[in-house]
UniProtKB/TrEMBL annotation:
Gene3D superfamilies: Potassium Channel Kv1.1, Chain A (3.30.710.10). InterPro entries: SKP1/BTB/POZ_sf. This is BTB domain-containing protein. It comes from the Eukaryota.
Amino acid sequence: MSNLPVFLGREPTVAEDLKYMEYDSFAEEGPRTIGTPDPERLQRDTSHYLPGKIFLVDNCLFQIPMHYLSSESEVFLGMTEIPLPADGSAEGMSDDHPIRLDGVSKQDFRQLLKVLCPRKAYGPAAVLSFGEWTSVLKLADLWCMDAVREHAISVMSKLTVDPVEKVVVARTYHVDQWLIPAFNEILQRANTLTEHDVDRLGLSTALRLVAIRERLVQDYRGIHTLTHARQAVNLDFTSAIISELPECKNVKTHFNSWGSLTYA
């Protein structure tokens, strides 16, 4: 029985489970050829080293059933369609001949595997931080894992996180529905923008946000007072955000059945 969560892909067949378990990566290997990894200098991941294909990410070896990846991405599905040589020397069959995943960090890959390969099918789902889910989103985008991407966005939307960080991630991975709520939170909070916030948002965006906040009228008398710190406000800045920030002009807004404004 597969550990694959019900929201991700189809259930693998028994034949698929067996296909990637028939090679024993712990069997003794012959002499290494020049240019192949030296297993003695690499580390095996302690959480994800199961019967299956062997991947090299950074300096770490992961071994997992291939169907966890191939059922979610055509990139990995294509690897399963390559005929296996009779001598079993194909990539992924041993620590000496792993499948190299260049340009990917072992930390990011490990977070993706927490979602795709839960350690116990009957146990609770992995609890990941916003940063860890960002790793999942990053690789889901890289390998066109649409179902994984949608699930990551759904979970991340419910997590409490610095709104500036949410804007950065939304821009990087094209999650446009996060932009207006995140900008609203920045405008509503008591905290002013720091230099680091300005660096991450960009000077143009930061200046536009400051300009919107300065339009806030304190009271009907038009009296201006200087306080020690900026005050939090309970005001919806959506219309001003859409008007002043070009990247939000095409974000679709609509009211759901409960009368709440949502973004898509």
